[in-house]
Design a protein that fits this description.
Radius of gyration: 12 Å
Largest sheet: none
Shape: flat
Distance between the termini: 26 Å
Structural class: mainly alpha
Number of strands: 0
Number of helices: 2
Order of helices and strands: HH
Number of domains: 1
């Protein structure tokens, strides 16, 4: 819940071309390997 509240406040300061990736399972390091290639392919990194 703390992460969701933080994201809600943070997005107001972001540019429209920026994205947020938030992991809800507790260990983002496990999902980073899957997310990075997709985001790179889309030109979002």
């Amino acid at each position: 819940a703390h992460a969701i509240a933080f994201i809600a406040t943070m997005i107001g300061d972001m540019d429209k071309d920026q994205i947020v990736v938030m992991n809800m399972c507790g260990r983002g390091d496990k999902d980073l390997g899957a997310a990075l290639p997709i985001l790179e392919k889309q030109g979002k990194l």
